[in-house]
């Protein structure tokens, strides 16, 4: 019985090691998510969000009404070479465009449950330090930002 189990384990290990390796485009910069468009990559707009405290909310503001990084895909896919960023801790938010800026507000104090929710993401390891991050729900046309949890760095893009 033990040799059979060992044989099954070895067969499974061989099957897993023969899995397809990622052969798509690789990001030219680490720690920046790139939109995957077929066989090419589009760099997201990397910015630092400005934090403003208002009555019972914190507003994160990004200058400019729209991002130059654009995708027609309602469920965009990103490729990132993660050296310092932890892909599993990325969050995705939709911006509201107000007064020529992109903003997202987070409720503070008693209204904590009333703010925007992070949209669903799926993270898949591809290779050593290489990850695929996918929007796991359809995004409406608009402005969005990927951000490492607890960080004011935002990687912006537009769905059109």
Structure description:
The protein is mainly beta. The protein contains 1 helix and 14 strands. It has one helix spanning 2-17, and strands at residues 34-37, 40-43, 45-48, 50-54, 57-63, 70-71, 77-81, 90-94, 96-98, 101-107, 121-127, 130-135, 142-148, 153-159. The strands form 3 sheets. Strands 2-1-7-12-11 form a 5-stranded antiparallel beta sheet, with no helix packed on it. Strand 4 and strand 5 (57-63) form a beta hairpin.
Query: What structural class do helix, strand and pairing data support?
Result: mainly beta
The largest sheet is: 5 strands, antiparallel
Calculate the mean pLDDT score and round it: 88
Kindly report the oligomeric state of this protein: single chain
Termini separation: 59 Å
Say how many strands there are.
14
The percent of residues in helical segments reads 10-25%
- Name the poorly predicted regions: 10-18
Shape: globular
Order of helices and strands: HEEEEEEEEEEEEEE
Number of helices: 1
Radius of gyration: 19 Å
> How much of the residues is beta strand, in percent?
over 45%
Q: Which strand order do you get reading across the main beta sheet?
A: 2-1-7-12-11
Q: What would a concise description of this structure say?
A:
With 160 residues, the protein is mainly β. Helix content is 10%, strand content 46%.
Q: Could you give the topology of this structure?
A:
Layout: H1 2-17, E1 34-37, E2 40-43, E3 45-48, E4 50-54, E5 57-63, E6 70-71, E7 77-81, E8 90-94, E9 96-98, E10 101-107, E11 121-127, E12 130-135, E13 142-148, E14 153-159
Parallel strand pairs: 6-14
Antiparallel strand pairs: 1-2, 1-7, 3-14, 4-5, 5-10, 7-12, 8-13, 9-10, 11-12, 13-14
């Amino acid at each position: 019985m033990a040799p059979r189990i060992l044989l099954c384990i070895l067969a499974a290990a061989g099957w897993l090691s023969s899995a397809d390796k990622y052969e798509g485009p690789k990001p030219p910069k680490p720690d920046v998510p790139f939109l995957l468009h077929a066989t090419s990559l589009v760099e997201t707009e990397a910015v630092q969000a400005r934090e403003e405290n208002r009555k019972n909310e914190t507003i994160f503001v990004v200058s400019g009404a729209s991002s130059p990084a654009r995708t027609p895909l309602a469920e965009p896919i990103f490729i990132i070479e993660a050296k310092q960023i932890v892909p599993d801790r990325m969050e995705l938010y939709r911006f509201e465009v107000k007064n020529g800026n992109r903003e997202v507000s987070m409720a503070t104090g008693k209204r904590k449950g009333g703010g925007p929710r992070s949209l669903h993401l799926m993270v898949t390891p591809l290779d050593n330090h290489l990850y695929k991050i996918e929007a796991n729900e359809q995004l409406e046309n608009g402005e969005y930002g990927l951000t490492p949890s607890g960080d004011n760095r935002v990687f912006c893009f537009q769905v059109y």
